[in-house]
From TrEMBL:
Family matches, as Pfam families: MTTB (PF06253)
Presence of the UniProt keyword Methyltransferase in the record: yes
Gene source species: Roseovarius bejariae
GO BP, one annotated term: methylation
Keywords: Methyltransferase, Transferase
InterPro entries according to UniProt: MttB-like_sf, MTTB_MeTrfase
Protein family: Belongs to the trimethylamine methyltransferase family.
One function term, GO molecular function aspect: methyltransferase activity
Entry's EC annotation: 2.1.1.-
Enzyme class: transferase
Annotated protein name in UniProt: Methyltransferase
Length: 512
């Protein structure tokens, strides 16, 4: 693992936080070696599938965008009035068959490509939060400076592969915000960036900046997935104008589109898990079908976000048993259609406490052991997605590093079986000083980032830092140690010239 944080206290910390030319390739492209957990029997998955097709054909989806409705009808769907489209089941399945089973996202830096599909996994930061928090500054509206710091920290850890929109830069006007946020991601990281679906102009602007950063021709850009965006259906059973535009624009640009219904059981979807999944599945299939009409073979990802709500308040609940079961089942559905799967690492906790840790861990188990290929909100998510937290980011990275190590293969051979070491130690004694141990001292076990494995006396002597205090320190040490990845000066000049021209034009109309 390579991180930009400065080394502190001992070899384990130095190993964890020192920049090195070498890095752990298993951390930069995860491969999940475990068979995915299956929530339902094959016949039950088939029943959910058939119910979803029945929803699409008999109830349909309300499609609020005129161009999207025209595309759907021209392809063979039926307009049922009041902007409702009814979908032909056979045509839906034919369209889903055009979508690729695996997608490779190309990062700007060397060894930053990540593939999605099969057992390949990529981890994304949190995104879309209006607020930022840390234990010294408290919770406050997000700024561009907060986004910059989150980008710097995300660049420092190899278990982060994909950059989310992190936090809203609310100190930048909405019509210009996408310029500043995209520029930050492109200059402070060399990992795969995110594009908000906030209207055709804003999407086109972001795509152009990313194209310039990669030095691609327009045709090369259309043939090379280098970024991604998320289209959320407006559950229940609706696609709004901006999401339709994003689906179509991403497909035509050849960039990854993640179709994610926001199906909350009992609120925006049936209260039963099979019912919520049938609705999620119908909405996902409809959006993916639209993308394949816009451009057959366009890269897509099946998005899962089904969870329950607190029925006393209506608030979303995350990291619950229901969320985990839905994640397992969503993996089965994505594999049923041969599509990459997106899930999330989420919590409803309002602070970095035990609830935040165990809900995030439950979310990770549901997502990763359910077979997800793209984990969104992997680090930093707090307060049900309303806040990006500095300390939570580091605590989450710790958990992600543990999964990265869990997924690494363990070789069984003469050297690892350790017979010579056992023979050397014999009966009684210890293995600390054996050659077998010394040769593997720094690589034998996972070395903690935030966790403190020392005894109480040593911990107290060092100042008795708790988890949040250590995480806060590591976050801002990593910010200070950040070195921007290389970006050719002429490419940056092209990007800045483009921003200047578009700013002079008034920026983007984010309502269309």
């Amino acid at each position: 693992m390579s991180s930009t944080a400065k080394p502190r206290r001992g070899r384990a910390r130095a190993r964890q936080n020192t920049v090195t030319a070498a890095f752990d390739r298993a951390w930069r492209q995860w491969r999940n070696p475990y068979p995915p957990v299956e929530q339902f029997r094959p016949d039950e998955v088939e029943a959910i599938h058939k119910t979803s097709l029945r929803v699409l054909s008999d109830i349909g989806l309300k499609v609020l965008d005129d161009d999207a409705r025209r595309l759907l009808v021209k392809a063979g769907m039926t307009e049922a009035g009041d902007q409702v489209i009814r979908f032909d089941p056979d045509l839906v399945m034919e369209l889903l068959g055009h979508a690729p089973r695996e997608v490779t996202l190309h990062g700007r830096g060397p060894d930053r490509d990540v593939s999605l599909g099969g057992n390949k996994v990529a981890i994304c930061t949190t995104g879309g939060t209006p607020n930022f928090s840390d234990i010294k500054g408290g919770r406050r509206p997000g700024t561009l400076a907060d986004l910059d710091n989150l980008c710097r920290v995300a660049q420092g850890f190899d278990v982060i592969h994909v950059i989310g929109p992190f936090v809203e830069a609310q100190d930048i006007p909405p019509n210009l915000r996408h310029f500043a946020m995209t520029r930050s991601v492109l200059t402070l990281t060399d990992k795969v960036p995110f594009v908000f679906f906030r209207g055709a102009q804003a999407v086109a602007d972001a795509y152009e900046m990313i194209r310039l950063a990669h030095g691609l021709s327009e045709e090369e850009f259309r043939q090379t997935p280098v970024c991604y965006g998320v289209a959320n259906s407006n559950s229940p059973l609706q696609l709004d104008h901006l999401m339709c535009r994003g689906i179509i624009d991403a497909a035509r640009a050849g960039q990854l589109m993640v179709l994610t219904p926001f199906t909350l059981s009992g609120a925006m979807a049936p209260v039963t898990l099979p019912g919520a999944l049938a609705q999620q599945n119908a909405e996902a299939m409809a959006g993916i079908a639209l993308s394949q009409i816009a451009r057959p073979g366009a890269p897509v990802c099946y998005g899962s976000f089904t969870t329950n709500v607190d029925m006393k308040t209506g608030s979303p609940a995350f990291g619950t048993p229901e969320y985990t079961k839905a994640a397992f089942a969503s993996g089965q559905l994505a594999r049923f259609y041969g599509l990459p799967l997106r899930s999330s690492g989420v919590t409803a906790s309002n602070t970095v406490d035990a609830q935040a840790a165990y809900e995030h861990q439950m979310s990770l188990w549901g997502a990763l052991m359910g077979g997800t290929n793209l984990l969104l909100h992997g680090a930093g998510w707090l307060e049900g997605g309303l806040t990006a937290s500095a300390e939570k980011f580091i605590v989450d990275v710790e958990q992600l590093q543990m999964f990265a190590e869990l997924f690494k293969p363990v070789e069984v051979n003469e050297a690892t079986l350790g017979f010579d070491a056992m023979q050397e130690v014999g009966h009684g004694g210890h293995f600390f000083g054996t050659q077998h141990t010394l040769e593997r001292f720094e690589t034998a076990f996972y070395s903690p980032l935030v966790s403190d494995w020392s005894n109480y006396e040593n911990w107290a002597e060092r100042g008795a830092e708790d988890t949040q205090t250590r995480a806060h320190r590591i976050f801002f040490e990593t910010v200070e140690a950040h070195e921007p990845p290389p970006l050719a000066p002429e490419r940056l000049e092209e990007i800045d010239d483009f921003i200047a021209r578009r700013t002079a034009d008034g920026g983007a109309d984010i309502d269309r």
